[in-house]
Design brief:
By secondary structure, the protein is an alpha+beta fold. The protein has eleven helices and 13 strands. The protein has a nine-stranded mixed beta sheet, sandwiched between helices. Strands 2-3 form a two-stranded antiparallel ribbon. Strands 9-10 form a two-stranded antiparallel sheet.
Length: about 375
């Protein structure tokens, strides 16, 4: 009888930008901008034709999100109230692009963990929310810089891009189309964030992660995680949206152009996404004949601590401990597609062979992805 091909995760990587912005620093910058704005438009505000801006606070941010700091590619531009966006110098076409450079760092870590040479990789996927350009594909650039053979392509399913990428890689491995697939999730989320908006200026950070998915019968020295099953779901919603693109080019920082950056109806998102994700996970476990009690850990998307707390409670049937549902949100903020992979990368070394965990992401679209893994011997 021929061997049934099973996909396994053999390596992960994490690139963290060197610059970090604390809530205290972010609030000081935002409030300075608010004060200057209100002085500048004092007459219009007094006449009732313009609304005064309200200051933010550290307490507001932490209560609303659980975020305390975030890593960013550029700190100076974000905190400068005359700029309030990352200032990242444009590179020539001959230089490695910023997004690819971040992905390469995480990718090389994943390959090193798996004990693989890049020439053994058959396919490269760059699955992320915020692509630096339309084409050539970021994945093909990463493939070239690594020296990998085969093919590469980009994917965008917003915050669920990583889990959708893992599912795609697992399917290619099962079908025999590839032996080894590298999934990279580079995110410069600060580039699409409106740092002048009190309700969202604190949400995102920058980072890159990578996951290597391979056939389980390839020789390896390190441990692995069997991908037991994947389940995906999408449901259209305008409650999280970014309209910036080549069909509607403009200055996204200009007045009246807020929808060209990240915008969301936070309360609606919370109300819609929590039951959607909880139901997806429970249905997925039922399809795999796995009781929720068999899950040692949930590596959830890192968007909002309150959302994760409720989702974990609905899945596990009790208030989850930090060990059962670890967070990296406090120091990384929301890193879109990379969040659940950061949590998995940092919090999986205590698993014994045979123990189960679940990687889950969710976000704009709406989209949600569930990946059940089991530690292999």
């Amino acid at each position: 009888m021929s061997h049934l091909i099973r996909p396994v995760i053999t390596g992960t990587g994490l690139y963290t930008p060197p610059n970090s912005i604390s809530n205290e620093e972010l609030v000081a910058s935002f409030n300075a901008y608010v004060a200057a704005y209100n002085v500048r438009y004092a007459d219009e505000i007094a006449a009732g034709v313009r609304v005064a801006l309200q200051p933010s606070s550290v307490e507001f941010i932490e209560k609303a999100s659980g975020i305390r700091a975030r890593h960013v590619v550029d700190k100076h531009g974000i905190l400068d109230i005359e700029v309030m966006r990352p200032m990242i110098p444009e590179r020539s076409n001959e230089e490695t692009s910023v997004l690819a450079e971040m992905a390469l760092d995480a990718a090389r870590q994943a390959l090193a963990m798996a004990g693989r040479d890049a020439r053994e990789v058959d396919a490269v996927l760059v699955a992320a929310s915020n692509m630096q350009r339309a084409y050539p594909a970021m994945a093909v650039e990463v493939q070239d810089r690594l020296g990998a053979d085969g093919f590469g392509f980009d994917m965008n399913v917003a915050c669920s891009s990583a889990t959708f990428g893992i599912q795609t890689a697992a399917a290619m491995v099962r079908a025999g189309e590839a032996r080894s697939v590298l999934v990279c999730n580079p995110e410069i989320c600060s580039g699409h964030l409106n740092f002048r908006d009190r309700d969202s200026h604190f949400i995102f950070g920058d980072v890159a992660t990578a996951v290597l998915v391979e056939r389980d019968d390839l020789p390896r020295e390190a441990g692995a995680w069997e991908i037991v099953g994947t389940k995906l779901k999408t449901q259209f919603s305008n409650n999280i949206r970014n309209n910036f693109g080549f069909l509607n080019r403009c200055d996204p920082q200009g007045e009246g152009k807020a929808d060209k950056l990240f915008v969301q109806e936070g309360r609606k998102v919370f109300k819609d996404v929590v039951p959607m994700v909880s139901d997806l996970i429970l249905k997925h476990l039922a399809e795999l004949n796995l009781a929720p009690t068999l899950l040692k850990r949930l590596w959830l998307h890192q968007a909002n601590s309150n959302m994760n707390r409720i989702i974990a409670h609905k899945v596990l049937g009790h208030e989850a401990s930090e060990d059962e549902s670890p967070t990296v949100l406090d120091t990384y903020a929301n890193t879109s597609s990379a969040g659940s992979i950061i949590a998995f990368h940092k919090h999986n070394r205590d698993f014994a062979a045979g123990q189960y965990g679940l990687i889950c992401s969710f976000g704009a679209g709406y989209s949600a992805g569930s990946v059940v893994v089991r530690k292999a011997a």
